[in-house]
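Record format v2
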Amino acid sequence: MAHFEKANSVYEWLDQRLALDKLWKVLAAEYWIPKNINFLWAMGVVLMTMFTILVISGIFLLMYYKPDTKLAFDSVNYTIMQEVWFGWLWRHMHAVAASVVFLVIYIHMLTGIYYASYKRGREMIWISGMLLFVTFSAEAFSGYMLPWGQMSYWAAQVITNLFGGIPFIGDDLVIWIRGNFYVSDPTLTRFFMLHVFLMPIIIMMIIGLHFYTLRIPHVNNQDGEEIDFDAEAEKYKAGLKKEAKVIPFWPVFLSKDFFVLGVFMIFYFYLVFYHYDFAMDPINFDPADPMKTPPHIYPEWYFLWSYEVLRGFFFDVGPFSAMDMGLIAFGIANVIFFFLPWFDKNDEVAPASRRGGFFIWFWLLVADMIILTIWGKLPPTGFNAYIGYVAAVGFLALFAALPALTAGRKGLLKFVIATTVVLFIAGFLEYTKTLGNGFIITLLFLVFYALFFLSPVIVKRVSGGAR
Amino acid sequence: MNKELKILAIIIVLVGITYWGIEPYAHSVMHPHHEPATFAYEDLKPLKVKGNAQKGAQAIINNGCTGCHSIKSQNIPAPMDPVSASASYGVNPPDLSLIGAVVDPKFLANFIKNPAHAALLDHKFNDKKPYPMPGFFGSEQDLADIVAYLVSIAPKEVSEKEAFEVGCGRCHNLRYDNWTVIGEKPKFKSKVEEADFELKLAQYEENLKNYLGTTPPDLSMFIRSRGPEYIRDFIENPQKILHGTAMPRVGLTEEATEKVVAHLEKVGDRKKDKRNFLGIWVIGYFIIFAVLAYLWKKKIWAEVE
């Protein structure tokens, strides 16, 4: 056993046993972050705060919520919203945080993509982050079911049904997930378990992993500059604070984060009190009714883009059925971001603005995802369905083209483009068949194509781009 | 700093476009626009003669109205209890004590004359399947007298709850307010009493369902699921918003409709005032927080930049 002196204070007593001084240094006071950052680097702290709000408000809701199809709706909308002291506040905070947390996740993700913070040793940061995205999605989906409103029920019905598309085991899998042949009480109770126990625990563990993955490769900076963190830290500790390229997590990094957080909280609480319908869909204030299908079924906004990739394939192309293509595309959309570090063949770490064609690729991706999101909510009828189709094919094409684009492999790029052309022609044929005039859809394809073709051309011209 | 503002501007624009697409725009596509309610009931003809309330008191009895309707304020009791009445007519005929205070007089006259037509239910009722309440075949003067009488016995002011009960309460439950289609749920002294009430309620609801073809929804959360404007416009003309619905146009005045909406808000969104009040304080707190945080940040970063 180690030797222990008599302690002169409580802090010293604890420090002897827990090494608090050292722990604080490792975690905060000497945890080094690059100085060359902007407010996008505060999103991690914002996310952590949002997650904390979700956990705390969730605990309060859990004390009154009843996971039973007969009681759930009233326990939320009457007991919690009207009877419990400030129950309405906890519920609004929980629902709105669940929605805006995805907004911040998307900003956080796109920041990572823009500044190329997923490669050259940072792959595990990216992967653990994507794991968080997936587990947050599962958490959001299971939570949305709990109030047992109309959209809770029908979204659960539609989404669990998707697993039926998996070959051989699909039908059994759907029953296994639902715990019944249709969405019903056992479905609610198991999703309740997932939402309040299993998923939160997994999420907390992955958050720990995500923080840990930052330790070795360190946080990226605005210019993708490679920093010798040990040397810079020595400079800082020696008092050369202005010259050092790093700052400690506490207090310098957090002082900026607190300001960003404060501004974000103003926005968040404005939504909580005065503008919550986008996160608490009015239709979900109708109790679940298995006999009454709502005219429009749509997921929450943060799932719309992948939902539209699924819906985008709505007609058969040759031997491929619309349903199968949609499911495959949906499957790809949900995992493709995991592989980004390997799809990007260029190992240069720099902001997209200095990476030529990648810059165009990035903004095409953002534009495509916004289009997918908006058209994911609109009824998929008439012309809307074709916009969804183009955007869905475009999404896949963007990822298919990325390796060829970043590796400068023209042949491969041509192949991807040719495949996309075939899919667009299929869309054109279908369009002329059903709507008569292919002019607008052709124009749409041409616009997309012009942008698509432009990127390799620009890659060649702009220095510092893909070789 | 400039660069950060530029990034912020880009994010705000992109989030703004996305928000506009999935909320205002998507909803405008999914719920086509309709003209807001005017409560003028312009499709109905006004009466040409002036009514006399005193004569109306007699006319309402002579014409057999009280054979089905009670007028409790005038000590005219209901001939049947609600459940038996619903078995006969599908729905319990309303008590007429307050009807003149919540229903538009022009609508009332037209309804008495041709109920299915005024209620906009011509598509559901015809000679083979007549509306439960027969049309009025008396003179226009008698009709005007009856309407004048009903207006004269109605109180000047009805409460929000009363407006709801008269206008909606015989078809719609409001369980968060303890209201059922057969009246307020009482405090039960015994299990037998409770079972008896539940049985009556179930029988009434069954009759109602057979009559309408569907069970009218409980309205407890309608203020959140539909919102005030929808409810208002829907009450004024159900067919305009939900074509083919079994719900009759009930002819409420604008004032009575606002009372119904206010009542639904009290029942379904009881914490609205608290929410609006507390919001300002919480947001104010974070404005102060952000300002202090900014000053602290400036102080700390002055050492490193």
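Chain B has a mean pLDDT of 95.
The beta strands of chain B are 179-180, 183-184.
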